[in-house]
Design brief:
The chain has helices spanning 13-24, 65-71, 99-110, 115-136, 149-171, 177-184, 188-195, 204-208, 210-213, 224-237, 277-283, 291-305, 324-328, 350-357, 364-376, 408-416, 420-436, 455-462, 511-525; strands at residues 2-9, 29-32, 44-47, 50-53, 59-60, 78-80, 83-87, 90-93, 217-220, 241-243, 248-252, 257-260, 265-273, 284-285, 312-320, 334-338, 380-383, 398-406, 447-453, 498-500. It is of the alpha/beta class. The chain folds into three domains: 2-77 and 222-307 and 474-525, FAD/NAD(P)-binding domain (3-Layer(bba) Sandwich), CATH 3.50.50; 94-217, no CATH class; 311-462, Alpha-Beta Complex (Polyamine Oxidase, Chain A, domain 2). Strands 1, 2, 10, 11, 12, 13, 14 and 20 form an eight-stranded mixed β-sheet that branches. It has a seven-stranded mixed β-sheet with strand order 8-7-16-17-18-15-19, with helices on both faces. Helix 1 packs parallel to helix 19. Bound molecules: flavin-adenine dinucleotide.
Length: 526
C-alpha cells in the first residue's frame, strides 16, 4: 500500500498544474498516470526524425501559459505561432486585430452578394472580442508570483471588476453559434466558412472569440510536449512523485483508497481526479456515503454517464519530401484551410445523421462518396512544426499534421463493420487530395510516409469518452458547470475529499480551463 497525503490522478495539463501547484507549496504529492508519459491531449512524439504534436498543435496563452512559465521558473523558450486563414487560393496571415478587417474583405471578395451580411458578422465578432480581451488579454493574477501579491492588489481589483462585468455579458451570449449566424446571414456557404471548424452548437461567445485567440497562440521550442516535460521536471524537482503506467480502476471513497489495474492500492487524504468524469463516476464505490451525499452522487452519476463528449478529430500525419521553404512561401506554420468556398452545408449534420440512421444498409460506396465530399468541402487545421522550429524535421523535408473534426459514433460503426483500416487509409488519401488540390499542389506525389489517429485511438490513449478533446458535447444539456461565475464550484464532487479538474468539469473547455480548474482544485486541497 502506497500512502501520500495528496494523490492526483491523470498527468494531462490539468493534473500537472494541480500537482505542481501543490508540490510548490510543500505538499507531498503522488501523480498517477495511466500512460508511459505525461501530457494526455498535449503531447509530442517523433517518428523517423519528424516531430509531430499528438494533441493540441500549439498553446493558447490566454493570460495563463506565460505566467505559469514564470511562476514555476520553467526553462523553456517560447516561439511565435503565427496563424493563416485560407479559403481556396485566398490566404490571410493574421497579424493583430486589424486582420479582422482584411478577413472581411476576403469574405466579401468570395461572396460579393453578401457584403452587408459579412459586415454584420464581423461587427459581431468585434463585439465579442472586446469582451473576451478581458479574459484572455491580461495575465491572470491567479498565476502571479506570491511575493508580488501586494503590489498586484490594485491591478487585481481592477481586473476583477472588469472580469465580473465581462462575465455577466458573456453569460448572456451562450446561444449556439449556428443560431447566432442565422440571425446575421442567409448565405449558408458564408456561415460555413465562419463556423464549420467549430464543435456543433458551440456557444457563440466562445466560437466567435476564436479570431482573437489566433493572435494569442504560442509554440514551445521542442514542441508542446517539451512544455509538458518542463512541468514534469519542475514537479519532480519539488519532491513530487509520478507513477506511470498506473491506471486507476477503483475509487473507494469511504476508505480513501484507490486501486489500479494491477491490484496495487494507494491511500490518500485528498484526491484530485483529472481523467474522464465518466470513469470516476463509474468506478467510484458509493458505499459508506452519507444519505444526502449518496443521493446527490447517484443523481450526478446518472447525468454524467448518460451524456456524451463533443466531436473528436481525425488527424493525418505526413512526412513530405519537400523543403520547409515550399510551405513557408504559401502560409505560416499553423493554418486553417478550406479548399472550397461552397462549405459543408448539411454533410456533417443531417447527412451524417441520415447515414447513421440507415447504417445497416450503407454500402462502402455510400460511405466513401460521403467521405469524398466531407473532405473536399471541409476546413482543415494544418500544423507544420518545422516552420516554427527548424529542428522538427530532417533537413530538406517537412512533417505536417492535417486534422478535421470527426464524429466518434461514425468511426465506431465503421470499426464494428470491419472497415476501420480501409476507411482510415482512404480518409488519409482524401485529406491529401483535398489539400493538394488547393494550397500545396506539389505535396501529392511527395508523401514519404503517412499514418493517422481517430476518435477511437484518442479514446484508447487517454481514456476520453467518445475521443472528445474538449469535454462535453454542446448539443445536449451539459452535466458540468457552464457558468463562469461558478467555476470555483466546478472542482467539487459528492465524494469526501475528492476534487476533479480538467476538460470534463467545466464547459466550454480546452487548455486554458484545464489549467484554471487544476489550479482551483489544488487550492481547495491546501
Ligand atoms: C488535436 C487537438 C487540438 C487541440 N487544440 C486545442 C486548442 O487549439 N486550444 C485549446 O484550448 N485546446 C485544444 N485542445 C484540447 C486540449 O488539448 C485539452 O482540452 C486539454 O489538454 C485537456 O487537458 P486535461 O488535463 O483536462 O485532460 P487530458 O489531456 O485528457 O489528461 C487526462 C490524463 O489522465 C490520464 N488518465 C485518464 N484516465 C486515467 C486513469 N483511470 N488512471 C490514470 N490516469 C488516467 C490520461 O492518460 C491523461 O494523461 C486540442 C486537443 C487536440 C487533441
Amino acid at each position: 500500500m502506497k500512502e501520500k497525503s495528496i494523490i492526483v490522478v491523470g498527468g494531462g495539463i490539468a493534473g500537472l498544474t494541480a500537482a505542481l501547484t501543490l508540490a510548490k507549496s510543500g505538499k507531498e504529492v503522488l501523480l498517477l498516470e495511466k500512460n508511459e508519459k505525461c501530457g494526455g491531449l498535449m503531447s509530442t512524439f517523433t517518428k523517423d526524425g519528424f516531430r509531430f504534436e499528438a494533441g493540441a498543435r500549439a498553446l493558447v496563452n490566454a493570460g495563463l501559459i506565460k505566467p505559469l512559465i514564470k511562476e514555476f521558473d520553467l526553462d523553456i523558450e517560447v516561439l511565435p505561432n503565427p496563424i493563416t486563414l485560407g479559403i481556396e487560393d485566398n490566404l490571410l496571415r493574421i497579424e493583430g486585430e486589424e486582420s479582422l478587417l482584411r478577413y472581411a474583405d476576403l469574405l466579401k471578395d468570395l461572396y460579393p452578394g453578401s457584403r452587408p451580411e459579412v459586415d454584420r458578422i464581423i461587427e459581431s465578432i468585434q463585439n465579442i472580442i472586446e469582451n473576451m480581451k478581458v479574459l484572455y488579454g491580461a495575465n491572470n493574477p491567479l498565476f502571479a508570483k506570491k511575493k508580488n501579491y501586494l503590489l498586484l492588489l490594485p491591478s487585481m481589483i481592477c481586473w476583477m471588476a472588469k472580469l465580473m462585468r465581462t462575465l455577466y455579458r458573456i453569460q448572456k451570449m451562450d446561444t449556439p453559434f449556428e443560431e447566432h449566424l442565422d440571425l446575421l446571414s442567409e448565405n449558408q456557404s458564408l456561415k460555413d466558412m465562419i463556423g464549420q471548424h467549430f464543435f456543433k452548437k458551440t456557444p457563440v461567445f466562445f466560437a466567435l472569440s476564436y479570431f482573437a485567440l489566433y493572435n494569442d497562440y504560442l509554440y514551445p521550442k521542442g514542441g508542446v510536449g517539451a512544455f509538458i516535460q518542463k512541468l514534469v521536471e519542475a514537479f519532480e524537482k519539488r519532491g513530487g512523485e509520478i507513477r506511470y503506467q498506473t491506471e486507476i480502476t477503483r475509487v473507494d471513497a469511504h476508505n480513501k483508497r484507490l486501486c489500479d489495474s494491477e491490484g496495487n492500492e494507494y491511500e490518500y487524504q485528498k484526491m484530485i481526479w483529472t481523467g474522464d468524469l465518466k470513469t470516476l463516476y463509474d468506478i467510484a464505490d458509493d458505499e459508506g456515503l452519507e444519505k444526502d451525499s449518496l443521493l446527490k452522487f447517484r443523481e450526478k452519476r446518472q447525468a454524467i454517464l448518460s451524456h456524451k463528449g463533443a466531436e473528436s478529430v481525425f488527424s493525418a500525419f505526413l512526412a513530405v519530401d519537400l523543403p520547409p521553404e515550399y510551405f513557408r512561401e504559401k502560409a505560416s506554420a499553423h493554418l486553417f484551410y478550406t479548399p472550397d468556398r461552397k462549405g459543408l452545408g448539411t454533410i456533417h449534420t443531417l447527412e451524417l445523421q441520415e447515414l447513421l440512421n440507415r447504417w445497416d444498409s450503407v454500402t462502402r460506396e455510400d460511405l466513401f462518396s460521403w467521405l469524398e465530399r466531407f473532405c473536399r468541402l471541409n476546413t482543415f487545421e494544418i500544423s507544420i512544426p518545422v516552420l516554427r522550429d527548424a529542428d522538427a524535421a530532417p533537413s530538406g523535408k517537412t512533417g505536417m499534421i492535417i486534422s478535421v473534426l470527426f464524429d466518434y459514433e461514425l468511426i465506431r460503426c465503421i470499426r464494428d463493420r470491419g472497415w476501420y483500416d480501409e476507411f482510415t487509409k482512404e480518409f488519409e488519401a482524401q485529406v491529401i487530395h483535398a489539400v493538394s488540390s488547393g494550397i500545396y499542389p506539389d505535396m501529392r506525389e511527395k508523401v514519404l510516409f503517412r499514418f493517422s489517429t481517430t476518435p477511437i485511438s484518442i479514446y484508447d490513449r487517454v481514456g476520453s469518452s467518445e475521443g472528445s478533446i474538449v469535454g462535453w458535447s454542446f448539443e445536449e444539456k451539459i452535466p458540468a458547470v457552464t457558468n463562469m461565475f461558478k467555476m470555483a464550484d466546478s472542482v467539487k464532487t459528492e465524494l469526501p475529499d475528492v476534487y476533479a479538474a480538467g476538460k470534463w468539469v467545466y464547459s466550454p473547455a480546452g487548455g486554458p480551463t484545464a489549467i484554471m480548474t487544476g489550479r482551483i482544485a489544488a487550492k481547495k486541497c491546501k
